[in-house]
């Protein structure tokens, strides 16, 4: 085997957001022109004036501001679409050329996001059924009438949004039915349809290439109505309704009516019916496109040209032939969940579809304005396109608020694949087969990362190396086996072609041992697993993490975790809050740098040059080719989830940098690597029950050293509208409120920068006009004389700090909304920054699904400590490991301990067992031995209990009886913080109807006393407590006012009265004419 030359070439990972960028690029270059080319020629009512577009001279004007300014000013990042038009005056024989503005098209940013009204949004890719034809087995187990029990059926699926589709069905009595779209009824008998199309049996046989077997089968199927006919009949109208089991008398009446009609009338009537049927059945219901045409040609072995994008009668008859053959065991059924039968509607396709809708509305508006004789300036309007984009980005389920918690959540959101949305599935009706993992997902969709709850299996994530081809199908790269040991580039393969080849995974071949090639290799072939010789393998995978998503690939020792816990770890990494002092993990997988680079959150040099100037806001670089460029840094900017976006420069003046070198880190990166948490010294042991059931005990060092301190920025915004009573006023003179709430306002009525604000303090003073009586009372006249008219003619609608919030004002600015330009309404945005330390009730987690809530914070001296006196930072429950089967956290914490002593970071891929058995355990123990030898500390690796250490109780100084697993684990602080969730209320708003407290923290609601709580109080016999909760503390209006007065004046508490909800019930009964009398 000396002739082998090992593949020493590097496989460079593709950009993780290239699919979004490339799809939008195709939309701008091709999609816009295609839709403009479809735009119809507009004529006036007398057809003397026509106009049409010149599509090849379309102009897109770039926006005036960059992405950051659009976010700051609350504007939409878009381009203006100008199209030249030609006006033809037929009477005057004149031609004029004009350029008009059709509207704006939202632009994608360099980070694959859209900025709509200053808010970053993401268009999620949608996975739908590919257009074409699919044969499936009917559900014979359904308890339906035997007449409608379907044995086989085939579906014609159109392109999403361009038709409802058709369905052919064969029931258990061998009757053939046609169903339109998703409607269950009515069903059309196939004989009825063929009679409408005036097809002879001889013609049908000709179309099907004289297939005598089918002719016999078809004859037998349509003869189920017991009525005989000959092949020389002109039409099949004699069989009309025969298969529908109509009485013979009705059939005879129908035949007589046809014979008595004038032949010319019948012929004309049938031609009209045929045209109507062809237009409505084939054209309107089934636009296949080139993708659907290719699928039908491949399935039915046809050679129809690709430009025939609609369903043809020939497709219909050959599909009927295939369906009948299935009843005698000829042909194969389709797997609708296979990725060869599903395609991706990417960003560009979704935008092109909505551009088509907008231009359709524009064409209707232009026709109406043309008939009314409007001038050219008024014929076209930008409103149809603006309305279309507003509907798409404002209410469409695929347009989502971008997840900006950290860099990983951003890039994962852009690579998300959803089955939901228009043209997709419904989460309430989606069955298990759709949600389950399919074998064709290999290297294309991640089998691990999916949400928990009702969306499980319906929302997935792209695998690391997956790409979307031009037709929307997912592909993944492979090496050809014969080129595996040569410097050759891989090639991408779709799911349909892959199952025809024998594929070996890339992690099963150790290219460093040639003898390993002589063993049998496990392969995948035709959706099953086999073992075969190396010389029979066709394809080889690229690398072990090829079939996982980005988030799952960031989990070290992934192969030692249960899949359910890996799913939780993948999802919780996206929920990690960027910390004030981020730290990259000691143990990683090597993808941390690629994720940070492709997320777009860090700043890189455009070319080689020298650093001239660096501060917290700008970096100036003198480039050899580009001159002096200035790079702007984000300083304490707010994300969509109120986390902090902040850049830290990592270069110094005078430093020589190369192209692509990192200039500044983001709040969730360190030196260009993803950093979501902290390396914490943990111990797996019980401690006085405080870490029972996933509760976590932490040291106060994490607070004093600001280990888990994070920065959060809240945005408050208000707009001064023009009301019908007059404009709203932003001012610092608010007579309705005391002075201590207005002390931070400037002369314009806006809070000053740098001040500390607390709950209920005013951020923006605003007065709104209100109606006032013509004849004020004496008391009202006195108040007007003292405070002025504003007290009674205007009400205060000030912007205040929400309950439970406080912080420092870091920025205020005036803004003018784009959609309010006509009224010139002004708005003010205020940003409040607050630092949050970790506290009891916060949620923390590792990367292996090991999550928990902080239950107690101990002083450092009370925490258990190591033999060298180092106190433990966090105590975790050891019972959370064996039952959850996520042993990878044990490997991680032990290797992290060795790395902290050796001052080494580890980056390696999962599935290292391909080198040798127990490779993970051997490597971890070897590193612990190295750390023991280097530091001369015997306790790092104890021979009697490797991986464990003796600990001492910080309170008593005594040693614990059992050795404890101690290590450095990478722990994340999640966005589920107690400060956002805890809530208390004394009094507050009540429901108008029932007068019961509202629900929810945002509405200052109360705690619901439900049915089970009532049972509990009844079980204890606490009658008076129950009565108090259901009356005085709920909806007894008179009672709660009397209770408040009694508490303030220190008097005897009042007796409860009748609840308001009970009174509502009585009134509802009276509305039903049922009166009741209360005897108390």
Tally of strands: 55
* Helix coverage percent: 25-40%
User: In terms of structural class, how would the helical and strand content be classed?
Assistant: alpha+beta
Overall, the morphology is globular
Which residue ranges are poorly predicted, with pLDDT under 50 across at least 5 consecutive positions? 1-9, 141-147, 207-216, 219-262, 511-515
Task: Determine Rg (CA atoms, Å).
Answer: 36 Å
Largest sheet: 7 strands, mixed
Question: What is the number of independent domains?
Answer: 6
CATH architecture assignment name of the largest domain: Beta Barrel
Domain RNA polymerase Rpb2: 252-345, 400-468, 1005-1075
Keywords: Chloroplast, DNA-directed RNA polymerase, Nucleotidyltransferase, Plastid, Transcription, Transferase
Domain DNA-directed RNA polymerase subunit 2 hybrid-binding: 610-1003
Catalytic activity: RNA(n) + a ribonucleoside 5'-triphosphate = RNA(n+1) + diphosphate
Q: Could you give the topology of this structure?
A:
Blueprint: H1 18-38, E1 42-43, E2 49-53, E3 59-61, H2 67-73, E4 78-89, E5 94-106, E6 114-116, E7 119-123, E8 125-129, E9 132-137, E10 150-157, E11 166-171, E12 176-180, E13 188-189, H3 190-196, H4 201-207, H5 212-222, H6 248-260, H7 263-283, H8 289-300, H9 313-326, E14 342-345, H10 347-371, H11 376-379, H12 383-395, E15 399-401, H13 407-414, E16 416-418, H14 432-435, E17 459-461, E18 467-468, E19 474-480, E20 491-494, H15 495-498, E21 503-504, E22 521-524, E23 529-532, E24 539-540, H16 550-553, H17 563-573, E25 587-588, H18 592-598, E26 603-604, E27 609-614, E28 618-623, E29 627-632, E30 637-638, E31 644-645, E32 648-649, E33 656-657, E34 662-665, E35 669-670, E36 673-674, E37 678-684, E38 695-699, H19 701-704, E39 710-720, E40 722-723, E41 726-727, E42 729-730, E43 756-757, E44 762-764, E45 766-769, H20 778-787, H21 790-793, E46 794-796, E47 799-800, E48 807-816, E49 826-836, E50 843-845, E51 851-858, E52 874-876, H22 888-902, E53 906-907, H23 919-935, E54 948-949, E55 964-973, H24 978-981, H25 1011-1020, ...
Parallel strand pairs: 8-16, 21-24, 25-53, 37-52, 38-51
Antiparallel strand pairs: 1-2, 2-4, 3-4, 4-5, 6-7, 7-15, 8-14, 9-10, 10-11, 11-12, 12-13, 16-17, 18-19, 19-20, 19-24, 21-22, 22-23, 26-34, 27-28, 27-33, 28-29, 30-31, 32-34, 35-36, 37-55, 38-52, 39-49, 40-41, 42-45, 43-48, 44-47, 45-46, 48-49, 50-51, 50-55, 54-55
Pfam family, one: RNA_pol_Rpb2_3
Subcellular location: Plastid, Chloroplast
EC number: 2.7.7.6
């Amino acid at each position: 085997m000396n002739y082998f030359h090992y593949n020493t070439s590097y496989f460079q990972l593709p950009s993780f957001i290239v699919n979004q960028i490339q799809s939008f690029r195709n939309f701008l270059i091709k999609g816009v022109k295609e839709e403009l080319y479809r735009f119809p020629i507009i004529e006036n009512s007398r057809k003397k004036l026509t106009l049409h577009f010149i599509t090849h001279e379309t102009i897109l004007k770039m926006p005036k501001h960059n992405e950051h300014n659009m976010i700051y000013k609350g504007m939409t990042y878009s381009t203006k679409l100008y199209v030249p038009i030609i006006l033809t005056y037929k009477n005057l024989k004149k031609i004029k050329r004009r350029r008009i503005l059709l509207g704006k098209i939202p632009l994608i940013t360099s980070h694959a996001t859209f900025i709509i009204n200053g808010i970053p949004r993401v268009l999620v890719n949608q996975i739908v059924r590919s257009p074409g034809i699919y044969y499936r087995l009917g559900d014979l187990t359904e308890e339906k009438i035997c007449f409608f029990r379907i044995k086989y059926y085939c579906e014609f699926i159109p392109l999403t949004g361009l038709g409802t589709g058709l369905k052919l069905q064969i029931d258990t009595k061998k009757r053939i039915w046609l169903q339109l779209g998703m409607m269950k009824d009515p069903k059309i008998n196939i004989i009825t349809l063929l009679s409408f199309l005036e097809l002879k049996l001889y013609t049908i046989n000709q179309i099907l290439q004289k297939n005598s077997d089918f002719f016999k089968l078809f004859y037998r199927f349509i003869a189920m109505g017991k009525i005989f006919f000959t092949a020389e009949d002109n039409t099949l109208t004699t069989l009309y309704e025969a298969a529908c089991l109509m009485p013979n008398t009705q059939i005879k009446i129908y035949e007589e009516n046809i014979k008595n009609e004038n032949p010319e009338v019948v012929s004309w009537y049938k031609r009209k019916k045929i045209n109507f049927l062809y237009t409505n059945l084939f054209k309107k219901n089934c636009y296949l496109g080139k993708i659907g045409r290719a699928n039908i040609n491949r399935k039915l072995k046809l050679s129809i040209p690709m430009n025939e994008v609609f369903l043809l009668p020939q497709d219909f008859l050959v599909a009927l032939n295939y369906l009948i053959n299935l009843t005698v065991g000829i042909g194969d059924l389709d797997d609708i969940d296979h990725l060869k039968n599903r395609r991706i509607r990417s960003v560009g396709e979704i935008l092109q579809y909505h551009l088509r809708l907008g231009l359709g509305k524009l064409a209707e508006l232009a026709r109406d304005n043309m008939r009314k004789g409007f001038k050219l300036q008024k014929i076209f309007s930008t409103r149809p396109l603006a309305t279309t984009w507003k509907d798409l980005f404002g209410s469409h389920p695929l347009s989502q608020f971008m997840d900006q918690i950290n860099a990983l959540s951003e890039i994962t959101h852009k690579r998300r694949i959803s089955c939901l949305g228009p043209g997709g599935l419904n989460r309430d009706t989606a069955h298990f087969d759709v949600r389950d993992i399919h074998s064709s997902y290999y290297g294309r969709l991640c089998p691990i990362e999916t949400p928990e709850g009702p969306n499980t299996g319906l929302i997935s994530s792209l695998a690391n190396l997956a790409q979307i081809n031009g037709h929307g199908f997912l592909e993944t790269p492979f090496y050809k086996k014969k080129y595996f040991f040569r410097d050759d580039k891989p090639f991408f393969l779709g799911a349909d072609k892959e199952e025809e080849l024998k594929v070996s995974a890339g992690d099963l071949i150790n290219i460093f041992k040639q003898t390993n090639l002589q063993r049998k290799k496990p392969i995948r072939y035709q959706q099953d697993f086999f073992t075969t010789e190396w010389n029979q393998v066709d394809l080889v995978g690229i690398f072990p993490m090829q079939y996982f998503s980005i988030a799952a690939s960031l989990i070290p020792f992934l192969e030692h975790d249960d899949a359910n816990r890996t799913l939780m770890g993948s999802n919780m990494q996206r929920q990690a809050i960027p910390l004030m002092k981020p730290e990259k993990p000691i143990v990683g997988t090597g993808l941390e740098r690629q994720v940070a680079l492709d997320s777009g959150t860090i700043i890189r040099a455009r070319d080689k040059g020298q650093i001239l100037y660096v501060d917290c806001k700008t970096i100036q670089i003198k480039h050899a080719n580009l001159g002096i460029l200035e790079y702007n840094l984000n300083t304490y900017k707010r994300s969509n989830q109120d986390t902090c976006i902040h850049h830290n420069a990592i270069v110094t003046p005078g430093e020589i940098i190369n192209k692509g070198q990192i200039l500044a880190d983001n709040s969730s990166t360190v030196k260009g690597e993803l950093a979501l948490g902290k390396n914490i010294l943990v111990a797996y042991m019980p401690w006085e029950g405080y870490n029972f059931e996933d509760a976590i005990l932490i040291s106060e060092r994490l607070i004093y050293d600001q280990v888990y301190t994070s920065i959060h920025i809240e945005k408050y915004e208000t707009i001064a509208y023009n009301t019908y009573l007059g404009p709203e006023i932003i001012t610092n003179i608010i007579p309705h409120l005391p002075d201590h709430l207005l002390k931070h306002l400037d002369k314009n009525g806006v809070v000053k920068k740098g001040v500390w604000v607390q709950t209920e303090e005013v951020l923006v003073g605003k007065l709104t006009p209100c109606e006032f009586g013509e004849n004020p009372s004496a008391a009202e006249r006195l108040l007007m004389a003292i405070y002025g008219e504003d007290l009674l003619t205007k009400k205060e609608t000030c912007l205040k700090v929400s309950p439970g919030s406080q912080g420092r004002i870091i920025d205020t600015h005036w803004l003018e909304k784009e959609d309010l330009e006509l009224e010139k309404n002004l708005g003010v945005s205020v940003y409040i920054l607050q630092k949050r330390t970790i506290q009891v009730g916060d949620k923390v987690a590792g990367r292996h699904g090991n999550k928990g809530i902080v239950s107690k914070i101990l002083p450092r001296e009370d925490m258990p400590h190591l033999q060298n006196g180092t106190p433990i930072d966090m105590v975790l429950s050891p019972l959370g490991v064996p039952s959850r089967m996520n042993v990878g956290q044990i490997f991680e914490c032990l290797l992290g301990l060795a790395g902290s002593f050796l001052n080494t970071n580890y980056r390696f891929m999962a599935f290292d067992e391909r080198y040798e058995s127990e490779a993970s355990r051997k490597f971890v123990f070897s590193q612990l031995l190295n750390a023991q030898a280097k530091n001369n500390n015997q306790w790092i690796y104890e021979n009697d209990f490797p991986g464990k250490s003796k600990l001492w109780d910080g309170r008593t100084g005594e040693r614990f009886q059992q050795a404890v697993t101690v290590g450095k684990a990478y722990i994340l602080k999640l966005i589920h913080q107690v400060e956002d969730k805890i809530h208390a209320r004394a009094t507050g708003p009540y429901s108008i109807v029932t007068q019961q407290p509202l629900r929810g923290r945002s509405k200052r609601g109360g705690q619901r006393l439900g049915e089970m709580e009532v049972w509990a109080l009844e079980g204890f016999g606490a009658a008076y407590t129950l009565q108090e909760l259901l009356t005085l503390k709920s909806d007894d209006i008179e009672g709660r006012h009397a209770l408040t007065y009694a508490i303030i004046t220190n008097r005897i508490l009042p007796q409860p009265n009748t609840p308001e909800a009970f009174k509502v019930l009585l009134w509802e009964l009276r509305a039903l004419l049922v009166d009741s009398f209360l005897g108390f």
